[in-house]
Design a protein that fits this description.
The protein is α+β, with helices and mostly antiparallel strands and about 110 residues long. Helix content is about 30%, strand content about 25%. It has a 5-stranded antiparallel β-sheet with strand order 4-3-2-1-5.
Length: about 110
């Protein structure tokens, strides 16, 4: 995928693209921002790291490219970004079947 950011363009993996866009949207909802260091290819084919800021004002655009699959060996960074996104999501209640509910007597008077 080609990532357009702050007037520049880099190539990132599809997994990174999806994780980065989800994280950007999640952190924007909190009003916060964060610097991330991600592996990229420049459009000239040079591999390196890019530091980007994601937050409420981030304008990220990911578009498919004609380039072959981009493999940056970035799964650990993708996993970290997914974990950060999960931490920003609100907690959800999970229904429990009646037999699974703890019915022990309360110690409160």
């Amino acid at each position: 995928m080609k990532l357009d950011y702050a007037g520049g363009e880099v190539l990132i993996s599809d997994a990174m693209s999806h994780a980065l866009l989800e994280y950007s949207a999640s952190i924007a909802r909190t009003g916060g921002s964060e610097n991330l260091l991600i592996p990229v290819f420049t459009l000239d084919g040079v591999q390196g790291m890019a530091e980007i800021v994601v937050g409420p004002a981030s304008q990220l655009i990911a578009t498919p490219t004609e380039q072959p699959h981009v493999d940056l060996g970035d799964q650990s960074v993708v996993d970290d970004i997914i974990a950060r996104t999960t931490l920003l999501r609100p907690a959800r209640a999970i229904p429990v079947a009646g037999d699974d509910v703890d019915t022990a007597e309360s110690e409160l008077p």
